[in-house]
């Protein structure tokens, strides 16, 4: 694995106001062992098929869902597929995997490590949250016959730690606000670090546009873009009237990535409760999006994702934290799928501009042919063996 970045040299500066993941660690997950991947505002995993790009993004999404409070079984419906192929079971026939990340923010770098048992039963068997060299939370499976782990969190009061049971199918870090009172400086430090980790993980939008589903007219509804961008027409109808400046940027981006002239991107109701999207070609010619190629549709959908925000995307950010203190992270496996080199380049350049502003981050996976290394501000993780 090689890592490169053309970002500006780091300068001594204050801690970031908005939490963001700076490293993904896969100690043992699918094809990865003892892997550490740096994450910047715009990170692209590249390499040949089978090199582990999808696995890395899957692990990131799993951490995000656990941080949002999802149960372990929902996050890992096929946990055995996440176990390294050559991992041998122990004397109790147990096998599993380990994932983790670092999130930087107002509290400084905070590290999370999670050990998951996949066989014979799916459960979290260990978790550690650390910051500044101090272990703030640590859990361990003590009694395999009980569906709990023993947890100990930093107190720094009359007792250095507080102990108690936590469920073995939820991320303990996400449960800390329900268990820690915050009476001592130590407990308040635990809560602040846990909040920073959870805010960064919850503010994740995994996106994989499906051209087949985007071609049809869609019912008018909440106007929040689904993961597969099935309701693209509905979201275009909503966003056009909400922010003309941002929508003008979308039209410019579509013009750069779609074949033929494009003067506008429109959505029109059909009278039956549905809406369809069109490209205005000028001189009265309009092209229904259903007639576009797969690459054009994916390009349009991904450009819309990069130019919008959590209020439009189907994402569950931390409602108790002001939006100004959160950063949306877009996960896009197969970012260049179906796109030609020109479209992929335009999309990466758009992503670089948007990520530079600090309100959005992107972690994507691309093939070997995408010219990403030349773009400033891109952290490239090359998984080529």
Please give a structural write-up.
The protein is an alpha+beta fold and 385 residues long. It is 27% helix and 30% strand. The chain has nine helices and 18 strands. It has an eight-stranded antiparallel β-sheet, with helices on one face. A hairpin with a 2-residue loop joins strand 7 (123-131) and strand 8 (134-140). Helix 8 (294-307) packs parallel to helix 9 (341-356). The radius of gyration is 22 Å and the shape is elongated. It starts with a strand and ends with a strand.
What portion of residues belong to β-strands? 25-35%
Secondary-structure element pattern, one letter each: EEEEHHEEEEEEHHEHEHHEEEHEHEE
Largest beta sheet, briefly? 8 strands, antiparallel
- Quaternary organisation of the protein chains: single chain
Uncertain spans: 6-12
Shape: elongated
Structural class: alpha+beta
Q: Kindly state the number of beta strands.
A: 18
| Average pLDDT level | 89
Gyration radius, in Å: 22 Å
Q: Keywords, please?
A:
single chain; 385 residues; alpha+beta; 8-stranded antiparallel β-sheet; 6-stranded mixed β-sheet
Give the SSE map.
Elements lengths: L1 E4 L14 E10 L2 E7 L3 E5 L6 H15 L4 H4 L19 E10 L5 E10 L3 E9 L2 E7 L7 E7 L6 E7 L4 H8 L5 H18 L1 E3 L4 H4 L3 E2 L12 H11 L1 H14 L6 E6 L4 E9 L2 E4 L5 H14 L20 E5 L8 H16 L3 E7 L12 E4 L3
Parallel strand pairs: 4-17, 4-18, 11-16, 16-17
Antiparallel strand pairs: 1-18, 2-3, 2-5, 5-6, 6-7, 7-8, 8-9, 9-10, 12-14, 13-14, 14-15
Helix pairs in contact: 1-4, 3-4, 7-8, 8-9
């Amino acid at each position: 694995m090689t890592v490169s970045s053309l970002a500006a040299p780091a300068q001594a500066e204050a801690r970031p106001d908005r939490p963001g993941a700076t490293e993904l660690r896969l100690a043992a997950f699918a094809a990865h062992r003892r892997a550490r991947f740096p994450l910047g505002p715009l990170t692209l995993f590249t390499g040949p098929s089978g090199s582990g790009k999808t696995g890395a993004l899957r692990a990131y999404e799993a951490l995000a869902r656990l941080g949002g409070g999802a149960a372990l079984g929902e996050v890992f419906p096929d946990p055995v597929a996440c176990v390294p192929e050559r991992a041998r079971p122990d004397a109790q026939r147990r096998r599993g995997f380990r994932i983790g990340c670092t999130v930087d923010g107002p509290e400084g770098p905070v590290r999370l490590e999670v050990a998951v048992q996949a066989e014979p039963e799916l459960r979290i068997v260990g978790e550690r949250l650390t910051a500044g060299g101090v272990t703030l939370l640590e859990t361990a499976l003590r009694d395999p016959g009980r569906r709990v782990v023993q947890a100990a969190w930093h107190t720094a009061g009359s007792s250095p730690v507080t102990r108690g049971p936590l469920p073995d199918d939820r991320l303990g870090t996400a449960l800390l606000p329900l268990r820690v009172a915050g009476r001592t400086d130590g407990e308040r430090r635990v809560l602040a670090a846990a909040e920073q980790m959870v805010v960064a993980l919850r503010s994740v939008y995994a996106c994989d546009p499906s051209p087949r589903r985007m071609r049809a007219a869609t019912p008018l509804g909440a106007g929040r873009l689904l993961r597969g961008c099935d309701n693209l027409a509905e979201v275009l109808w909503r966003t056009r009237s909400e922010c003309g400046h941002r929508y003008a940027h979308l039209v410019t981006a579509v013009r750069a990535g779609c074949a033929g002239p494009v003067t506008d991107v429109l959505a029109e109701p059909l009278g039956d409760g549905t809406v369809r999207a069109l490209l205005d070609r000028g001189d009265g010619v309009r092209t229904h999006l259903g007639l576009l190629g797969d690459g054009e549709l994916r390009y349009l959908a991904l450009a819309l994702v990069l130019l919008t925000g959590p209020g439009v995307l189907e994402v569950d950010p931390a409602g108790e934290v002001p939006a100004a203190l959160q950063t949306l992270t877009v996960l896009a496996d197969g970012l260049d799928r179906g796109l030609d080199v020109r479209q992929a380049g335009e999309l990466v350049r758009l992503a670089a501009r948007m990520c530079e502003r600090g309100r959005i981050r992107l972690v994507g996976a691309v093939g070997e042919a995408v010219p990403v290394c030349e773009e400033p501000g891109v952290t490239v993780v090359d998984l080529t063996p």
